[in-house]
Amino acid sequence: MSTPLFDQWRSRSPHYDDTHEAVADSVRAFVTREIMPHVDAWEAAGELPRDLHRKAAEAGLIGLGYPVEYGGSGEDFDIFHSLVQSEEMCRPGAGGIPASLLTHGIGLPPILAMGSDELKQRIAPQVLAGEAIICLGITEPGGGSDVANLRTKAERKGDHYVVNGAKTLITSGMRADYITLAVRTGDPGLGGVSLLLVETERDGISRTRLDKMGWHASDTATIHFDNVEVPVENLIGPENQGFGGIMRNFNGERMGMAQQAAAYSRVCFEDALDWARERETFGRPLVTRQAIRHKLARMLQMINATQSMIDHAGWTIKHDCAVPGDFALLKVQATQTMEYCAREACQILGGASFVRGSRVERIYREVRVMAIGGGSEEIMYDLASRQFQF
Length: 390
Ligand SMILES: Cc1cc2nc3c(=O)[nH]c(=O)nc-3n(C[C@H](O)[C@H](O)[C@H](O)COP(=O)(O)OP(=O)(O)OC[C@H]3O[C@@H](n4cnc5c(N)ncnc54)[C@H](O)[C@@H]3O)c2cc1C
Fold this sequence. Notes:
four-stranded mixed beta sheet, alpha+beta, single chain, 14 helices
């Protein structure tokens, strides 16, 4: 597989230097050695081996950007190092792998941002060492977009909460040791929502595996809570103030998903270009046809526009002036780019794109989860439009 363009764009960007290339080199070496040879097997198995988490931690992938005191790499790294890592993790074109290997990227930040020192010490080192898997539970069978109206209830009884309800579509949900769980502890609406750390070994928890259109290497679950007792020490931040934490967490998730969508778009571009150079129809390579060249040019146009938005959003994070609506629009831009590139790459590959197992075929099946998961397109436009006056 040739990769002529995958990361050349960084050398022409003011946001990336040799330190980012060093991260790229080390992640690429890990992906080539530990992931690429196993993609088909893990897609068939429906989950990643636990050992991969330990290996990824040893290679520095799990702890990148997290505090040293909990086993992370420390703060010498900026948001652009994380983006480089996301990009490289997407090179196999199998979205379930980074989604599931890195679920701590959505499960752990609320604990580090809002949790007690005791909770941070208890959970973060195990997760960052790849010894424990943590997931995030927001979405419920009754709906995921309307977070303020979630129904899973945690009722305080003495020194513990009793949790009842269900979460669905939870990434890494079958294998997770911990779940950062959004629960209702108070009145209806966003002012009655809290975050609670729940050990998945507790009595009253059961899990059901979900079969999906894509992200096959990622285990996805519905998790049921039936009178599950959770100690009050596991509350993440103050009671009834979880909604703000959930919303802040979404910004990081949307930024990561945007970079992944840009990377998958680049994979589509690369594989389509390779194919168009090699495939001859009516006596000439496909790439000599204007209809095909224009598809490729438009793919690149959209990828470049998306990367510029991502880099600008990264700059606003680095300079502490980020605006939530920008992350919402960024996610839409990036996933629409991925949708376009996946479609056009399939057209260029023709029938070969329909045969199971290629990067383009997988990415085509993974467009919808990127456009819906972590906040759907409609909800992203709603969120962004709330920032201006009608
Ligand atoms: C593979 C996968 C992994 C996931 N992993 C996780 C995870 O780890 N943790 C987690 O908590 N969740 C996870 N999700 C859930 C995801 O975040 C939700 O699917 C998403 O938030 C949308 O919620 P929903 O599917 O319940 O759709 P709904 O909220 O029921 O909405 C259905 C459709 O209606 C649209 N819609 C809703 N309200 C409006 C409105 N007011 N106006 C216009 N349109 C509207 C939505 O955009 C959507 O297209 C995952 C999803 C997938 C597919």
